[in-house]
């Protein structure tokens, strides 16, 4: 892919009159970018209906305009465009598309539009279709030792049949596991999208949108796996021991190490280097070779 500029755009449609605060929306987008570890370089309010946020080579612009809903009534459209400048690889292009999908998902969940279009006004989706393409966002119940045995229990229909056949052992109230399963079933029914269009024939734009969210999840897992590992407990203890050892020879250097360990975390490599350099200067000073060594430094350059 040649180096250039690529722009992707989406629109959130609100039926009827709707007042949209562009400042609040651009701040919301800024929070999404910061959550994705994107450094923001500036925010600009261009007008009452248009705002912009800048981050590295990414430019996110929002605007509001009047449009027509699917039923022909008047509506308000909030457009969000992501422009990627100086894209020299396919990864930069895909990163801009994933960023637009993440921003759109957050705005859909926060602003709750009636419908939206993805990349082109011709590809209109309902809110339920978009959330279905984004994947489930349902909270999961934590399973502990008391509720793990619920999975080995027979299904609810078989249990009801067994319970009806033996009325002598009937209990006035259900067990804790049965209550939790009933709550899960009601929550799943309540959170499930009720739009009939979700079960219709899939739209090619839905498939492409789903691929964008899947690639975004893979990218997030890759970034997590490539993140530097945290130091273990022995490494942290060794870093503090080295800092204390440095304090025997030089208190200012030890104080600097203590501050770094407190605010940036223990760094075993930095502590070892500080101890080595401190020991070198102490040895040169005690042997009388510090002044000749410092005099040789200008000649080395």
Q: How much strand?
A: 15-25%
Q: Report how far apart the termini are.
A: 44 Å
CATH class of the domain at 4-134: Alpha Beta
Number of strands: 7
Weakly predicted, low-confidence segments:
137-154, 193-207
Number of helices: 10
In percent, how helical is the residue content? 40-55%
Radius of gyration: 30 Å
How are the strands of the largest sheet arranged? 2-3-4-5-1-6-7
Protein described:
This protein has 301 residues and is of the alpha+beta class. 51% of the residues lie in helices and 19% in strands. It contains ten helices and seven strands. The chain has helices spanning 22-35, 90-111, 127-134, 156-165, 176-191, 204-225, 233-249, 251-263, 268-287, 290-300, and strands at 4-15, 42-47, 50-55, 58-68, 74-87, 115-118, 124-126. Strand 4 (58-68) and strand 5 form a beta hairpin.
Topology:
Layout: E1 4-15, H1 22-35, E2 42-47, E3 50-55, E4 58-68, E5 74-87, H2 90-111, E6 115-118, E7 124-126, H3 127-134, H4 156-165, H5 176-191, H6 204-225, H7 233-249, H8 251-263, H9 268-287, H10 290-300
Antiparallel strand pairs: 1-5, 1-6, 2-3, 3-4, 4-5, 6-7
Helix pairs in contact: 1-2, 2-6, 3-6, 7-8, 7-9
